[in-house]
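Reader question, answered in our methods column.
A reader sent in the components of a multi-part assembly and asked whether the whole thing could be modeled at once rather than chain by chain. We filled in our standard form and ran it. Here is what they sent:
COMPLEX SIZE: three components
ENTRIES:
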Amino acid sequence: MIMFLIKKSDVLEIAKELGKEYQVLGPVVDTDSGQTFFEKTEPELIQLKAPIPSVPPKYTVFPQIETLMRYRYDRESKAVEIRELYEAKPKALFGLRSCDLSGLLCLDRFFLGQEFVDEAYRVHRKKMFIVTNTCVTPFKNCFCVCTDSGPAAEEGYDLNLTELDDVYLVEAGSDKGRELAERMGLEKADESYAVKKKEAVDKSVSLFEEFATDSKAWISRVMNRVTTGFIREDVWEYIGDQCFECGACTFVCPSCSCFNIVDVNNADGSSERLRTWDSCSYEGYSRMAGGHNPRKPVEDRRNKRFFCKLSYSQMKKYLRPGCVGCGRCAWVCPGNIGLPKVVEYVRRETHK
Amino acid sequence: MKQKHGVCTFCGTGCGHFLAVESDTVTRVFPSQNHPVSKGRLCVRGWNIHELLTTKERITVPMVREDGVLRECTYDEAISKVVDVLSSLKSRPSEMGFLASPRATNEETYLFSKLGRAVFNTNNISLDSESGHRNSLNVLHEGAGFPGMNCPVEDIRKAEFVLVLGIDITKQNPIIGSEIHLAAQNGTQVVTVDSRRTQIAKLSNDFLQIHPGSNTLFLGALGKAVIDQKLAAADFIASAVEGYDDFAATVAGLTEDQIVSGTGISYDDIKKIARKLAAANTAMAFFSSGISGLDEETIRCLFNVFAITGNIGKEGSGLNPVAGLNNLQGGYDMGAAPDLLSGFQSLEDVKVRSAYAAEWGSEPPAIPGRSIPELLEDESTPLKALVVSDHDEGIIRYADRLKEIDFIAYIGAFRNPFTEYADVVIPVASYIETDGTFTNTERRIQLSEKKVEAPDGVLPGWNVYTMIARKAGADWNYSSAEDVMNEIVKVTPRYAGVSYDRLRSRGIAGIQWPCDGNNPEGTPFFSLEKAGGKLKCLALSGDFEVKTADPDYPLLLMVGKAQHFWHQNNLMKKTYIPLREYNATLLDYPEGFVEINSADAYELGVRNHWTVRVVSLSGSMDVAVKISDDVKPGTAYSPYFVQDMIKKFLLGHTNILRQGEDATIPVRIEKV
Amino acid sequence: MKVTTIVNVPEVVTIDEIREEIKDVKTFYLSFDKKEYQDTFKIRSGQFVMCTVFGSGEFAVSLPPSPENDRFHLTVKKVGKVTTALHELEPGDKLGIRGPFGNGFPFEEIKGKNVIYVAGGIGLIPLRSSIVHVLQHKEEFGRVIVMHGAQTPEALMYKDNLKEWQNFDGFETYITVDNPTPDWTGETGFVHTLFDKANLPVENTVAFVCGPPIMFNTVIGELMKRGISDESIYSTLERHMKCGVGKCQHCAIGRTLVCTDGPVYTFRQIKTLGEEI
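And here is the structure of the entire assembly that came back:
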């Protein structure tokens, strides 16, 4: 691992350098609302120390609504034209947190790594430069230590920043990253910095709320229960009663990727095929045209999502949980049944 | 900053959200973490609002009907036609009507009402749906001088006792339901009183499944239980409540037998609830305010019970009618009623009339008009012209009567089946294409600023109304929505301190009225101490009778909002995912359904999805059976969302349905 | 020869002919506009395609034609918005096709075995492909028993094919209806009541089952009662699909995605999917 150093006051120079070739996106805090966004911005406005953004940056590779293709079928002349539509500019994600990077890697494995490659995703993801930022203190609701996705990113980045005293340690995780650091003439860091980084990460881990460290063992124990199928129906009914079926958990989850496809007609006779975010929390998600709905009761949907997140989608194939421990599902849920709460209820039931 | 803060315009909760705009189109919606109402949450509608905002189903060109067909024309031609017809009726103002929209912005509704009153001399101005909300406002106005929800949503956590009365709140206003659920988890005693077991009932500490139509009796019994157990707040009553003795006398007359047979709840259980209510330092009540909202008598009774237990007029306590539509409260605030001017001021109040004259140049017409639904129902009154703003009723009632009206003008942004009845159609910009304010159910005025350009040539509502007025000869000079608000605040004491600058300075929080010299930062909760004066226990008719079934019609049918999306019906049809969710029920039961208990189904010998005939004294309908134990034996429930059902059966019972939540129709169910 | 799977952008096909099968079910004979696809579009029995009705939407539909020497066609029942729009089209109209997707029924692997087909109602549509393919290579298989049941005589699918199979020497064909009309001379009763009559083989046998969910459990139960193992019973599962390529996850059942891992599963697999089907 090649490591470099950069003065704290100069760290945004990296973003500026990236700005020459890429569209730079980074965390910015909105003054009116106090909310953190991760979005296109001028490099000098990035606030690296901002809390995790309220919505994960998955929209950069998987937009909430996008047109996949446009077509026109003229019934008179029987002529058909179809045009694929996705195009994307090269993007640099600067200051991504490790949980969000884990989510992005989950999406990579899913969209790019299975039987078929998703074209739209591939185009959006193609030319991307990722600079992650180690969380030297955790934020409210975080529990990445339980899902092995933080507080420091371990793979998948081009450069990883860690704040240490008066410098940032810049680790190059890829050739692209190393080249940029060398191009900028950054000073090389010696081995002692690896030690310093470990100390900073350990300190960060110790600062996690009791819930997270306490739950560390529980999430893996619950995962075990999930994979062996020993969770009673009434636990799911209890959880399902509290579900408001809003879909928020899936929309803010960095690794959720379900979508809906719909064809809409324009006034001029052409049509567009749109792709929008969808959620398995909805009743209509699994409903078939003839009326049969295998997942009609809400508890079945809660059950399914939990199993999918902790077991089926990533664990079975890639041996890591689909959950990245960002804690967002906990604060967006109107019914207060985010993943940590579900783990708590399951744990309570299995320990009666 | 590409993310722009806005307010969701589906239901009356008014959640904050951020919309991301790229290339002049909305690409993302996400929650507003620190918004005082939503605190980072959104419901299925709010999360998919980007589908509505990017729909192609818009009215983009003015149209005029010629030879039975709508043809495109210019704004000028359409507006001229409207003005010609309305001007010809100026001497007979009772023959025209203005149907305002509970979805339009405050500025638009204000100008719409001003158009009717100042330009065309009529007071036949009203909102259509949610007439139940008026009942709530009337009661709160009469009893406390405060025609609006007493508490802000974020104070729900401060209540030690929450009563949810006859409202399926987690489906109708999910985020308010969420707050109540979280409060319950935090120790608040939540009591749900309803005839159906709704989701909030499952999440409450106590659920009292009363017989349909017995809300008033229940509340009377609750009042009696408070008084019998000497739990009334004596000091508070002495200093701040009038009319206690009359109320006490009215409920004293109730007997235990009457209570038990009428509500189906034992008096002991009611006494237990009364004790919980009295023991709580702070208590709130939530009830529906709309098509199946409570009727006025019931709300009066509720008011009295809360008044005598000292739970109106202080922080964390009060009566909270929940508006189902995003600007329903705002609509009433802007005077869209035949007998009101803005700010719930009476049309007939001399002082108010002269304040208006100072702004408008002349007083509004003096004689109150009639509401549009009333006019449409009354076949004896001639109605020659109707101007409709942004009508959202996917199901159009009074379709036959509408066909008879000589002239109908429709002004709106989204395509709507209503335009089939219109002679002139005028497009306006949607709410993200212009500035405007909305007032949510908690009296919070929130500014929504323009985010994208309107489709080519489409003008904002305030501009269109100005053009109509000027064409009719009135000297209106608004050049922005802000101009309109600046006038509103001059004639509306409760809005006096509001301005776009002040709203902007408050960031994402908006401002709750009254906002005036005494309350420059708005008024989160109704404080009796600050307002001064006393609460008035309201007179009751003393009629606690509950409709019962009889051998010919042994089931009591309740009618209500089936799906949580019903009120967003026309807007829902423009989305994809919420429409799919809405359709999940509609497609399973295309003719509608009647929900009955499994015991009743067994007796009748019917199974799920079988067609049955529901027969009442005035009509019948064939619908599918839906077996559910959410209703008690002897009661049935039918949702208000299928066109055929409404036309064939429910319309014939409009008088009963006016009773709102207490509306029950004795029916019998026959196999077909 | 290059074998193509059309993944993202549909290829345009023309409707050459439309045949009414039973109430609300039509067969559409299609041909690719681009000539090269006529040769390179190779399917396996049990696979499906995503069919675009321009202006309306896309839906998943199983492929009934045999992989060899059979006109490319789709048989579709009118159930929802898109299929209703499809039923209003005429010969000459265009559709879009993406695919073929899915894993398909085993073919090479079952050579030499006895094959039992149990089809309920429109469940005969996906099975037809395998039946015709096996018919084309009958000598490579053992006994082949085709059983088809429908609610009424009118509702029997592919009546021409049924006649063909009844007359085909190598096949043992049985047909039954739940509610016979007065002039019905064949068997009556649910399809599993044919099992005894057919004297089903047990050793070295596979069974392919397809039909409405209600029929599913009874039929499989009866097959297993007679000793056929759950690893030898195949079925094709249906789920709401949007992308067909394993991305949108609408078709997920427990740990599997029906569009890529399925739609054909053995009953043993179905039992361990992790969710009820």
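What stands out: The longest helix of chain B spans residues 75-88. The first strand of chain B starts at residue 3 and ends at 7.
Send us your own complexes using the same form.
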